Amino acid sequence: MPALILIPGLLCDQTLWRSQIGGLNGHAETTVADITRQSTISEMAADVLRTAPDRFSLAGFSLGSQVALEIMQVARERVERLALLSATHGGLPSAVKSAILYAVAALEQDNLDQYLDEIYPSYFAGPRAEDQELKSVFVNMAHAVGEQAGIRQMRALLAITKPFPNLEKIFCPTVIVGGRDDRRIPPSSHQRLAEEIPGSKLVIIDDAAHFAPLEQPERVTAVLQQWLSK
């Protein structure tokens, strides 16, 4: 079976991928990268590569997508397949940048719970914005990662000031997945990224916002199963 490395997002851990890990059993040997200890995107990418097999498939969510694109800059010959979820072509939209700057200030003042309570509805679609069970998953992941790691991750994102170059040189089977109701990375951003990577497939998932792997886990898993079968 192919090796598959899953890279979580900001203030996320392996819980983000819980449904995909189970659903991809039999399709890939899956591991989840730890991007909580590093301070830059390049350090995160280097740490993933340090423990990765010679050849592997790669899926990155949100912050993890930026790490995945950095890996494609430095070691694309090792990547057999690429999946980018809730992704941009590099860096943050201006509104998201402002939100991240606010988040850094909140976390530096030990206001993690207040921050999570405020932002949760903006990350999820429709009735899930009021789903207390899903909110608990979201909050527990953030606490497992911790404030200091979260601040490092946010500053790493803020340090990306321009799009990644050479996206047109990505030739492995690539799928780009976004939520139709994502207010942070809207479908237009996913469309733009798909246009920059030759032959990539764009999948926009209905009834999902930024956290499609948690909101529509079966749909995301099915997309990844199909992508792995290429």
What does this structure look like?
The protein is α/β, with parallel strands linked by helices and 230 residues long. The protein has one domain (3-93, 156-228): Rossmann fold (3-Layer(aba) Sandwich). Helices cover 47% and strands 14% of the residues. It is built from 10 helices and 6 strands; from the N terminus they run βαβαβαβααααβαβαα. The protein has a 6-stranded parallel β-sheet with strand order 2-1-3-4-5-6, sandwiched between helices. The model has no long low-confidence stretch (mean pLDDT 96).
List keywords for this structure.
single chain, alpha/beta, Rossmann fold, 10 helices, 6 strands, globular
Q: Tally the helices.
A: 10
Portion of residues in helices? 40-55%
CATH class: Alpha Beta
Poorly predicted residue ranges: none
* CA distance, first residue to last residue: 13 Å
Question: Structural class of the secondary structure composition?
Answer: alpha/beta
What does the average pLDDT come to? 96
Largest sheet: spatial strand order: 2-1-3-4-5-6
Task: Give a brief rundown of this model.
This protein is α/β, with parallel strands linked by helices and 230 residues long. The chain has 10 helices and 6 strands, in the order βαβαβαβααααβαβαα. The chain has a single domain, classed as Rossmann fold, CATH 3.40.50.
